[in-house]
Structure formats: structure tokens, C-alpha cells
Amino acid sequence: MGSKIVLKKFFTKKSTIVFLCIIAAIVIAGILAPWIAPHDPVEQKLENKFLMPSWEYPMGTDNFGRCIFSRILYATRKTLGFSFLCTVIAAAIGITLGLIAGFKGGIIDTIIMRTCDVLYAFPSLVLVMAIVGIFGTGIFNVIIAMLIMQWLWYARVVRNLTASEKCKSYISAAKVCGTKNTKIIFSHIFPNIIPYMIAIFTVDFGHTILSISGYSFLGLGVQPPESEWGAMISDGRSFINTDSWLMFWPGIMILITVVIVNIIGDHMRDALDSQSV
Amino acid sequence: MSLIEIKKVKKRYKVRKFGKTYSFMAVNDVSFSVEEGKCVGLVGESGCGKSTLGRLIVGLENPTEGEILFKDESVSTGSDKKVPKRLKFARDIQMVFQDSYDAVNPKFTAKKIIEEPLKNFTDMTAEEREKEVVDLLHKVGLDEKDKDKFALEFSGGQLQRVCIARALASGPKVFILDEPLSSLDVSVQAQILNLLSDIKKDMDISYLLISHDLEAVYYLADALVVMYGGQIMEKIDDISYFDKMKHPYTQRLLSSIPAYEKLDGVQENAEMVSMDLHVQADDFSGCPYVGRCPKRIDLCKEKRPEMKELEPKHYAACHIL
Amino acid sequence: MAKLLEVKNLDIRLKKGKETIPAVNGVSFSVEKGKTLGIIGESGSGKSLTCYGVMGLLDKKLWDYNGEVYLDGELLDIKDNKKMQKIRGNKIALIMQNPMSAFNPVITIGAHFVETINKTGETKKTKEEIRSKALELMDKMRIRDPEVVYKSYAFQLSGGMLQRIMIALALVSEPELLVADEPTTALDLTVQHEIMNILHGMQKDYETSILIVSHDLGVISHLADDIAVMYGGEFMEKGPAHKILADPEHPYTRGLFSSRPAFSKERLKMMPGSPPRLEERGTGCQFYGRCGERKNGCKEYSPDKGTMISDREVRCLLVDTEETQRKLGA
Fold it and tell me: How far is C20 from chain B (nearest CA, A)?
């Protein structure tokens, strides 16, 4: 009932649907990259370097003569895929721990929440650097480092939502009806906090895209010759004065994706707010 | 035979206020029993511990001291602080809550709400459960087609009926009714009161009716317990003694009801600043009503009055009686 | 007796998209000087809206309201917030349902008095003057240790105490009309009784008129000189309290009165169904769906005004017969 109203409200905004379509197009393009990309993204043809956009190379070529369009398509898979993976795992960990902390309360709650506080105090960039420094560069180490920082968001929000849900008498009623605690968590509390989670998830997804690209730009994430939006900007940096489109295309992709994801998150939150009034 | 027996039950809570921790007795040395097939009315103002007592009886919380027995077996499952994993007598002792919109999961349909205890307590198949749900809906005066409605699509009175149907589902012996009327409109209250009185007659369920509404309690109850500040002030085992109740607090309560015109207004001492916590504090040994009592004597501040039998079936805790 | 407040054809509609849904339908009433009018009704009957409508406190984005409100024979512009604000401070005061949320938690009770007095009074007063005035008022409200209370914050006090203070604050400007919206609902029984006595005593001392709204028949019968029974945005019955309480004419009033057990164990007579929500209201008699005495024609019965029987107005087809019309004519 509640979530139906939220979804209805969410989909009545025309701009939301337009933005959702754009995101869907980007995702599908990424998935279908091997079929729609006109060239091999890593194949180097030095004689074709720094070509202007043309029919054959829709976004031109880079300093190694690689097709930027193909590279962007393949990079979409990496950037969005890893961001999604990272957000999903963070959400799963955070939600589980938050539910446990909020429902159980007491010492478990204290331990989980203090852990959150301690991690909060760490600048995330420093932590990522440290982990990558210890385990070596590579996208998976970056993701692990980011996970450590990211689950807290979910854990905190879920814990507070759970604690406030727990006080409502339907939880007492469920206990009186003989329902076990684990079932109360999953069939009563969890469905009631899902809409909030989706809203946080979308906004967080945007952040993660930025971070993953950022770390790759710094050379910590995806390693060459594979393409990634952040890494592509980094590659194009040396040619900013002469051939700036090398940076322009991946930059514009990040901009569009993050802005749209954030707008969708905002709309989701608006839809949620209007339900509570 | 007494179905539920409450023996010297105490419940202590700790509250934090401005950094200091106070402990106070929400329920302090309360004893009474609920006889089979009877309705006991538990009356008092907010903060008197009546709802806490209700939660203690179903087992949602455990008493600090004392015992609550259902058919001579203790309902509590563990230590004071630990919340029990599963309630021992959930099948036999059911509860109806104050605000029905708060007492059901807003994501559930009526069918799912009523089905919950059936799933937990019986091995019924899905079809059997469906039949049982329709049966229960009829019993509480709702229609079969209401079963697919979501909680928010019902009016307050209808949803309270759904809650009663859910409580009936496990075939309980006792109902704890925690202010079942207070969130309803006057005309709907009458419907629920009649429904409750029908159910009591037809299904032989004992009630503990917790309410601040003396009029409604009088309508349903066979016995009456008046609480103030966590303690029992006056108790009658037969409602026919109602007119003879004479504890100063009961008198005060009765004189506040415009519909009860047998008493002239009893004057009360002007209200003090935040007296309740102090009266229910751990180390306070006097009568909890002393601050507001117009008839107090010096002894009231120092010594807690014992429960005295004024006449058969009529007890009161007061020094001046 | 002179009429202090007169309301004619108050219409309040809820704005929903391009449509508007009627919430209060052309209600007319008056409050005499030094008397109390009690409006009784169930949830969603529009009783509180009527109050806020009279005071011009409704949010114009949500509500569309029209009607003539006269205070002391002077037409008020209820849509002009600035003009109403002046009147609200000085001539009309409001007591709200939930005293806990009506106070600012970060300033003391004394500061509330200072603020109220300085806002309403024409000349600024010194702190000492305000203090003595506040203490005097609180003493009248039967508050023990008013000096302690004066220095306290709202969260340190009980609900009953805050409600007394709210009444004291309302009385600061010595208003001619006190509007009380469910003043005792959030309070305990004994406290409720105390507040009713205070309101009653205050009316004697200051000759204030009171417009009180409640769902509780006990409160209304205790305080009101006149009663209006509201249902579905209309007055079903209106007249002197003793007459309505002794002999209700409208089936709804009768049903409402018999819904309370009144210390007997006899089976309650009950009205089926529940009060309609705003969207569920029909045309014609609003009570039609739940009425046990309905006849043909009830469904379409929707007069501009109820039938007058001596000093009582009843809006019901059963009363509005040719027979009564003839009697009234004669």
C-alpha cells in the first residue's frame, strides 16, 4: 500500500521518466558494448591518433589511435558495474547490521554504532590510500576499501528507522501473535524501511560512481589498458591544451550519469516525503 | 478458579533526565487475580502503571519482582531485562492495543494480519486458514470482501475489529485489552463495547480491561481495580460494590465524571510541580496519592498503607479508612 | 442578551487539485456575551475547522473559506491575516488541544508571559509588572508555587499544568472571546475536571464568552449554555443546553447520547457505521447512511436552514413535517 503510493507518485513526474530512460540507455549501451562498439577498445593504431570525430570514430581517437567511443562504452561497464557492485554490497552489510543493532539494542547496538563512529572519524581518501598501499593497486582493493567506509551510512539510517519502528505496537502485537524475532525483522520491519533504503541507495550510487572514477583517475583503480571513465580523463590530461576532447567525453559521461542519478534519488525522496504528510 | 494470578509484582524502570539516572517503580507491589470467564477492569490515569502491568501479563516484559501465574504456571521467561524470544502463553493470552493503526503492519492486508497467529500456532493449510479468516471476520462483524483491504483503507473502528479478530484467531483464554476504545469516536466506541461483551459471552474469554474510562469499564467489568502511582488504591471483586467505593482517590475520580452524579465535587489540593516521579521513586515510602489527597494525615507521608478488607470483596489501601 | 460573536454561512472547502471538497457547509451560529457555546461532534465533523475558520487561522493554500464573522457587531475580514492577528491577540484568544506542543521548549514560562504581554499590550510593561500579573493569573488558575512555575521550562511541567498556563496566557489580554479547541482531550480525567472548573470560574470573573469544541459530551454538558451538534460539516441540532440534553430531537443527537454506557450494564444502543470522511460525504442529509429512522426523501433532504422549534434549530426531515410547520405557524 504505502510503497505503491510512493511508486505511483514517483512515476507521475514526467522528468523522472525521462531521466530514468537516459540512465537505462547508458546501462544498456554498456551491457551491449561488444556488439555496438565499432572498434576494439584496446587496439592501438598509431597512424590514427588524435582524429577528430567522424563517422568511423564518433568521438574521435586518443593518443594511441584507439576509438574513444568504443572505450567509453566499455568503460561504462567498468564504472557503473563496479559502482553498483560496491553500493549493493555496502547496502547489504549496512542494512543487516543496522537491523540487528536497532532491533536488539543494548550492547550489540553500542558495539556496532561505536564502530561506525570510529570509521566516520577516518578520512575515506586516507583509508583507501592505506589499503591500496598495503595490498597493491587494483579495482578490487579499492572496492574493499570503499566498502569499509560505505556501509556505515546504511547501518546508521537503518538502525534509527528500526529502533523507531520497534516502538510501534504492531511489533508487540506480532510478538503476542507468536512470531519469532527473526521473522519480525524480515517480514515486518524490513518491508517498512525499503522505500527509505531505495532513496539512500540511489544517492549513494551517484557518490560511488564519482569515487570509483576518482580513484581510477589517481591511478589506484582500474589499470591500463582497460578503460574506465576516471582513468580516461587521467590519460587525456596531458593533452588538455591540444586535444581536449580526450578529457571531454569521459567527463561529460560522469557528469550526466551522476547528476541524473542524484536527481532520481531526490525525486524518490520527494515521493517518500509526500507519503508521510 | 483464578485464571491469572498476579502476586506482589514490581517493575522498576530507569529513566535518564538531565544526565542523572532515576529509577522509579512503574508497578509497585500489585496483587490481584482474574477469574475464569470474568472481566476485571483496571482503572487509572496516565502513568499509573496500568499499561505496564498489561505488558507484564502477556510477557512482553518481565517483572522485577513477584510472579504472574497463568493456570498456576509463571508467564515470565527470564530475567528482568531480557526480552523473551518467544512468549510462553501467547496462544492463551492475547492482547488488543490502544491505537489500531499503530498495532498493525501498514503493509499487510486484513487477511495477512489475521493469518499471522494462525501461521504461528497451527498447521492449517492455506485454504483452511483462508476459511478461518473469513469466519473470524464474520465474528467481529466484518465482511468477507474486507479481507483484501489494507490497514489504511479501514476506518478506526473497523481496524480495531480486525485487531480483535487477530486476537481471537489463536483461541485464547484471556484478553488483555489495553485502552481499546480511546482512539475511537463515541458512536464507534459503543459498537466495540457491544462486540466485546458478545465475544465474552459467546467464547468464554476472560478480560482484563485497562482503561481510563470508568463508564466503559463499568459496562463490561465484573470486578474493578483502581491504580495510582503504580499501586492499587482500591479493589472490588464484585462490581455491585461500585457505589460503595470510598478511597479518596476513587472518590476524586468518580467526581470528575459529569455523567456520574452521585457525588458532589471533591476538592483537591492544587497541583504540585512534577510530583509523579518523586512519588514513584524507589525510596519513597509513603502513600503515592499523598500529594493530592485532601484527607491526608501525617502518617500518609511516612508509611505506605496496607491493603485492608473493608468488607467482603472490597479492599482499599488507605490509612483513614 | 447581546451577541458577541455572530457567524453567518461559514463555508470551508478543502482544495484538492482543481476541485474543492466541502468540509463545513454554510454554518451559522452566535455566541452571547458571557455565555458558552459548545460544539460537539465526532472526528471529521468539521468542528475544529469551524473554530479555526472563525479565527482566520486556516492555511489559504489548503482551504477555501467564505462567510461573515461579526465580533461585537463589527464585520471581521477573516481572510486578512494581518488584521486578524491584531484581533486574535486582543479580542479573541485560543486554547489548543495539545498543551505540550504549544510552548516553546527553550524559553521559560515567564518568557512566554513577557512575549504575550508585550505583543498584545499597547504600552510596554516592565518585567516586574508582567511578573506580578502572571503570578496573579496563575494563582487564579490554582497553580501551587507559581513562582517556581514562572521560572520553569515547559518540559518540566505536566500536561494539566501547561493547560492551566495556556489559559492564563490566553487571559493576559482579557479577551472578549475564548476559543477552546478540545481543551481537555489530552488530559487525565481528574485534571480535565479541574480545567473545566477553572474555565467555568474564569468565565464568572471576567465575563468572557467561550466557544468550546469537543467530542466529549461530558465536557460540553458541563460547560455549555448552548449546544450545537455537528455532523458531516453541518449542524444537526442547535439550541439551549438543558433542552438538548433533556430531550434531543435529532436522531443523531439521540444516538450520540445513548452511545455512552452511563453506568449501567444494559446493552448499548448503537449507530451502525462510522462518521464519514471528507471524501465520503454525500449530498442530502449527511446522517442518512447511519440513521435508524430514515424515510423516503431523507436522502435528498438538504435545507438551507434547520427547522426552528421554539428556540431550537433541528435539521431533520422527521421534524420538518407539515405538522410541525402548521404548529409553528399557529
Answer: 22
What digits encode the pLDDT tens for the residues B128-173? 999 999 999 999 999 888 888 888 888 888 999 999 999 999 889 9
Give the pLDDT score at B282.
67
- Residue B271 banded pLDDT, cuts 50, 70, 90: very low
Size of interface B-C (CB pairs under 8 A): 121
Q: Which residues of A touch B152 (CB under 8 A)?
A: 1-2
**Residue C329: pLDDT band by 50, 70, 90 thresholds?**
low
Range(s) of the domain holding residue B114: 103-171
Number of domains in chain B: 2
Q: Which helix (H) or strand (E) holds C49?
A: helix C47-55
Whether B150 sits inside 8 A of A1 (CB atoms) is yes
**Same domain? B188 vs B312:** yes
Q: How far B270 CA lies from chain A's nearest CA (Å)? A: 35
Cβ–Cβ under 8 Å, residues B12 and B282:
yes
Residue B191 has its nearest CB partner, among C193, C270, C275, at C270
Do B19 and B165 lie in one domain? The reply is no
3-state secondary structure of B39: strand
Domain final residue, candidates B126, B144, B171: B171
Q: pLDDT by residue (tens digit) across A203-241? A: 889 989 998 888 888 888 777 777 888 888 888 888 888
- Closest residue in B to C187 (Cα–Cα): B46
Least confident of A6-20, A24-38, C128-142: A6-20
Question: What would you report as the CA-atom Rg of chain B, rounded to the nearest whole angstrom?
Answer: 20
Cα→Cα distances B44→B179, B277, C38, C301, Å: 11, 16, 28, 45
CA-to-CA distance for A13 and A126, rounded, in angstroms?
40
| Secondary structure (DSSP) of A236-255 | HGGGTTT-THHHHHHHHHHH
Residue B205: inside a domain: yes
Residues B69 and B122 in one domain: no
**Whole-number pLDDT of residue B263:** 45
CATH number assigned to the domain comprising residue B11: 3.40.50.300
On the question of pLDDT at C138 being above 90, the answer is: no
Which of 3.40.50.300, 1.10.3720.10, 2.60.40.4070, 3.40.50.450 would CATH assign to domain A2-31+68-276?
1.10.3720.10
Pair B250, B234: CB distance under 8 Å:
yes
State how far Cα A102 lies from the chain centre. 25
What ipTM goes with this model? 0.84
For cell 567509453, the residue is A72
Q: Is the pLDDT of residue B20 over 90?
A: no
B abuts C (3+ Cβ pairs < 8 Å): yes
Residues of C in contact with B183 (CB under 8 A): none
In angstroms, the CA B216 to CA C172 distance is 39
Q: Which residue among B91, B105, B151 sits closest to A178, beta carbon to beta carbon?
A: B91
Q: B82 with B203, same domain? A: yes
In a domain, B98, yes or no: no
Same domain, B197 and B293: yes
Contacts of A191 in chain B (CB under 8 A): 105, 107
> Does residue B218 share a domain with residue B163?
no
Tens digits of residue pLDDT in C236-273: 999 999 889 888 889 999 988 888 887 888 888 888 88
**Ramachandran region, residue A249 (left: φ > 0; alpha: ψ -120 to 50; beta: rest):** alpha
How far is it, in rounded angstroms, from Cα C192 to Cα C248? 25
* List of domains in chain C: 3-224 (3.40.50.300), 231-329 (no CATH)
Chain-chain contact of C256 with B257 (C-beta, under 8 angstroms): no
**Domain stops at, among B122, B142, B171:** B171
| pLDDT at res. B274 | 41
- Residue B97 domain flag: no
Please write the tens of the pLDDT for every residue from B186-225. Answer: 889 999 999 999 999 888 899 999 998 888 899 999 999 9
